[in-house]
Design goal:
Helix content: over 70%
Length: 128
């Protein structure tokens, strides 16, 4: 059995060059993904139906949420269930509660932003 270690852990820095390069790869990919709909909407030779934009928007939101679940939920369960924390943190599955609350807040934020945005666009007689 290993001894319980609470506190700072010394991690070795590896693959520093690849980590820095990944920042620029992500920047290029996300810039392409974010600018493509803007260019396609304003360009005369890209005539995509509105449904394509709606699908891409919701698909992208789903990918972001799924990525967060896959990469953050398991470590959250490990860390919030650690024996290094006080017993209050171990008595309830806080990772699940925080996740559910975050998804609820995300849903409400999107709902209110959509409602306020469409109301302002209608008030300005802007077709969206």
């Amino acid at each position: 059995m290993s001894e319980l270690q609470c506190g700072a852990v010394q991690n070795e820095h590896t693959y520093t060059g690849l980590r820095i390069a990944s920042i620029f790869v992500i920047l290029a990919g996300s810039s392409f993904g974010a600018l493509l709909p803007v260019v396609a909407k304003r360009s005369p030779f890209f005539k995509l139906p509105k449904m394509v934009y709606e699908f891409a928007k919701y698909f992208g939101s789903g990918v972001i949420i799924a990525t967060a679940f896959i990469h953050l939920l398991a470590p959250a369960f490990e860390e919030l269930g650690s024996e290094c924390l006080s017993p209050g943190w171990q008595s309830y599955p806080w990772a699940s509660a925080i996740t559910m609350l975050s998804v609820f807040v995300l849903f409400l934020t999107e709902l209110f932003a959509f409602r306020i945005g469409t109301a302002k666009l209608e008030a300005l007689n802007v077709k969206y």
